[in-house]
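[Discussion] Sanity-checking designs against the backbone

I'm trying to build intuition for which residues belong where. Below is a structure token string of 66 positions. I'd appreciate it if someone posts a full sequence so I can compare it with mine line by line.
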């Protein structure tokens, strides 16, 4: 029971982190000319941040199941 509550808190924290990462002030930092592996910097940031959130959410939920 206690572990489930901690998992919910972690998922809520990840949601808030996603809200911050995908908000205008942070995204405007990466809206510059340049590229990462041929992708525009903003697109690389979006895909990297999205992938990071998915991996962290999977880690939190797997930790709960196992």
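Best answer:
Here's mine. Compare freely.
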């Amino acid at each position: 029971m206690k572990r489930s509550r901690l998992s919910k808190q972690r998922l809520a924290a990840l949601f808030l982190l996603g809200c911050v990462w995908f908000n205008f002030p942070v995204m405007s930092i990466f809206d510059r000319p340049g590229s990462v592996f041929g992708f525009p910097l903003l697109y690389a940031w979006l895909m990297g941040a999205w992938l990071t959130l998915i991996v962290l959410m999977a880690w939190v939920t797997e930790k709960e199941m196992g």
